[in-house]
Design brief:
A hairpin with a 4-residue loop joins strand 1 and strand 2. The chain has a two-stranded antiparallel ribbon with strand order 1-2. It is globular. It has one domain: Orthogonal Bundle (MetI-like fold). By secondary structure, the chain is mainly α. The chain has 15 helices and 2 strands.
């Protein structure tokens, strides 16, 4: 007599109010909630007062009573003030020179310390320490003391004094300025290096192995694999480098805004208008960079999907 085999009961599906993606979103929201709460408590009201000051004229400084004047302060900043536009162009030129160098140095250093080399952890720590030490007021005071000039001091043996004397004061000043900029650029690569390291470590070794089998050179692997795969990380690095450059401790435009607000002729309204013009430009620039790089990332993803389909055929 055959004994009927009982089928095991099917596991009951657990009812969940939240999908996995929604759970991840809530987890992310939980971790950024301190920043959101801090911004709501300490930034919203100052932003409101800044906007109000930029379109007003103070009549009573004690209670910050003011009359509405519209865009008069903005017109004065853009068309009357003789220092804002030249200082703004100087900051823009410095940023457009500095940011590409920061990105290039960061990605090259990240590639080198991502390899299997001796004391790799030590080098990673060394490149990140300047970011921990040189931020805000600390960095400002160090630059006042001339640390950017003393690290690679020309009179300390890096370049013989007789050679500098032969080249002349102008050439010596150019070399000193170049080394000072190099120090500041390397000083600013701490966070970009870490970001690039995280992007590089997310690339599968199988891609490089298959490229070697196909006969690809190191240069071809860099441009065909590394750069497209870390394009999202590069977008983050460029945005970070732009914001860091526009808000660094020795930004002359920020110093001008502070001087306008707290000089002998107190002009909070003009300073607020300067700040909002500067902020809107940075916002537009970041938006343009974001759109361009997102288009590049999308085109790279489409090309990668097309190659996968061709290989399957």
């Amino acid at each position: 007599m055959d004994v009927p085999i009982e089928k095991p009961p099917k596991p009951k599906k657990r009812f969940s109010l939240l999908s996995m993606s929604n759970r991840h979103k809530l987890e992310g929201l939980f971790f950024v909630s301190p920043f959101i709460i801090g911004a709501a408590l300490f930034f919203i009201y100052p932003l409101y007062m800044s906007i109000r000051l930029s379109v007003g004229s103070i009549t009573n400084i004690v209670g910050l009573e003011m009359d509405f004047v519209g865009i008069e302060n903005y017109v004065h900043v853009l068309l009357v003030d003789t220092e804002f536009i030249p200082t703004f162009l100087e900051v823009l030129q410095t940023t457009l020179t500095r940011v590409p160098l920061v990105v290039i140095f960061a990605i090259l250093i990240a590639i080198m310390i991502n390899r299997d080399i001796a004391c790799r952890g030590f080098f990673r720590t060394v490149f990140f320490i300047p970011f921990l030490l040189g931020a805000g007021v600390v960095m400002d005071q160090m630059l006042i003391q001339g640390v950017d000039l003393q690290v690679l001091a020309l009179d300390g043996g890096l370049i013989p004094y007789n050679l500098l004397f032969y080249l002349g004061s102008d050439i010596a000043e150019m070399i000193t300025t170049f080394f000072a900029m190099l120090v500041q650029i390397l000083w600013a690569t701490g966070v970009p290096i870490l970001l690039f390291l995280s992007g590089l470590q997310s690339i599968s070794d199988a891609l490089y192995e298959s490229a070697v089998i196909d006969g690809a050179t190191e240069w071809e692997k860099f441009w065909k694999i590394t750069i497209p795969m870390i394009a999202p990380t590069m977008l983050l690095v460029i945005v970070f480098a732009l914001v860091d450059s526009f808000t660094n401790a020795r930004n002359p435009l920020l110093e001008l805004i502070q001087y306008r607000a707290f000089s002998d002729q107190v002009a909070f309204e003009r300073a607020s208008a300067m700040g909002w013009v500067y902020f809107l430009f940075i916002l537009l620039l970041l938006g343009a960079v974001f759109l361009v790089l997102k288009a590049y990332i999308a085109s790279g993803s489409a090309e990668y999907d097309h190659r996968k389909k061709v290989k399957r055929r």
